[in-house]
Design brief:
Layout: E1 2-14, E2 25-40, E3 46-50, E4 55-62, E5 68-71, H1 75-80, H2 82-91, E6 100-105, H3 122-138, H4 145-155, H5 163-170, E7 173-179, E8 182-188
Helix pairs in contact: 2-3, 2-4, 3-4, 3-5, 4-5
Length: 210
Amino acid sequence: MRIEASAPGKLVLIGEYAVLEGAPALVMAVNRRAGVLLEDCDGDECRIDAPEVGVVGAHWQLDTDGRVRWNDLDGTDAERLRLVTTVVEMLCAGNPPLPFRARVDTRSFFLDDTRQKLGLGSSAALTVAFAAAVAAHVGCELPAAQRLIAMHRMFQDGRGSGVDVAASLRGGVITYRLHSSAPRISPVTWPASLHWCCVWSGRPARTEEL
């Protein structure tokens, strides 16, 4: 079996920080995509290639307690694959997947010359794409937005509004708001006469600092 999945990045137009306090945000998906290629493989272990974080050929198994056990991987490399660990443990608990090899690709979220992140939601896009590929592999439906947001939030140690995950899942332009911790997502029609241009300062910024 060969499964390919991808999801777009995001650009928050209005409400990037206010959304954390329950205010609405306007967000659009952008054509920077995280991709996942997943294929069946021999043996009794799954394998992951994630060259953008410097890990290739990592082996893992899902223990009987539902925890991912990385084989021959030190703590630093395992930490780099924490998003993979989180998605697998939340999606495959009680349903160990058949062995597969997955390659994740987030190159379009970095500047080619400096490898600097552009801040367009690479981890959220990868959460959606990887969850979609694994769900198809184990024969279940893609989780709903709230569960995908929970996966991404767990990866981020409980932080984040989920606006980036919603954009990667739904695409297009949406309004997003947290209501009693549950996401409210509505599509928006972009006016044909309205043009946009994205300007980057060249320096990344951390949400929690702003």
